[in-house]
Specification:
- The protein has nine helices and nine strands.
- The chain has 221 residues and is of the alpha/beta class.
- The strands form two sheets. Strands 1, 2, 3, 5, 7, 8 and 9 form a seven-stranded mixed sheet that branches. A two-stranded parallel ribbon has the order 4-6.
- A hairpin with a 6-residue loop joins β7 (151-153) and β8 (160-163).
- The longest helix has 27 residues, at 2-28.
- The structure holds zinc ion (ZN).
Amino acid sequence: MEKIWNAIKGSTRITVRIIAETVHRLVINIFDTLLGFLNLPEKKLRIKIFILQDPQSIPGISPADLDAAIEYAKRSFKKNFNTRLLPYKTGEQFVEVLQKKAPYEVLYTKGSIGALGEEFTIAGSFFASNLRGSFYPVTAFVVLDIDHATGCSLGPLTDYVTLDPDGAKNASTLAHEIAHACGLWHLGSKSNLLWRTFSRGDEVKWWQKNIFRSSRHVTYW
Ligand SMILES: [Zn+2]
């Protein structure tokens, strides 16, 4: 019964997000859908990063391990998208260790298409119920391991991304995963922020600005 309930909740969450994203891109943020490359005015993107603890209550990494990634994302988003990266609430820390115990399926999560399947299971329900705000902010969860990846995002279908300890300690992976959450997909250009691996650069194309800035996560307030 719980399995069916998790599947129903997962389908509902995704359907609502597809509708919300469409409304933002075609109505509320239509200016940026068409003219986002102008990078005006400055917009805001609010995030929260939760480090999960292993079954012995030991966090996968320490909050300071994310300093480089946060600085990189701040600088990259300001430079490329004229968007200020902010914590969920003014004065709040970007990073916190989540005190709630996460199930095994969350600590050892799947990447890419497997992650979509997990949206309909106990893992998806856990991520959804521990978000720091729905629809607008992006919550990043640092898990213990991701299958065949160091970070994962289901794009606009969810309000969260995941990182494993290697991804969290790498400077550019947080920015890369948040960019996925804002609708951007992989590009085959090594100098681009949307290159798959750690060797990526920090450049973006003009049309990536339109897509990023018209995301529901990138707001005027
Ligand atoms: Zn990626």
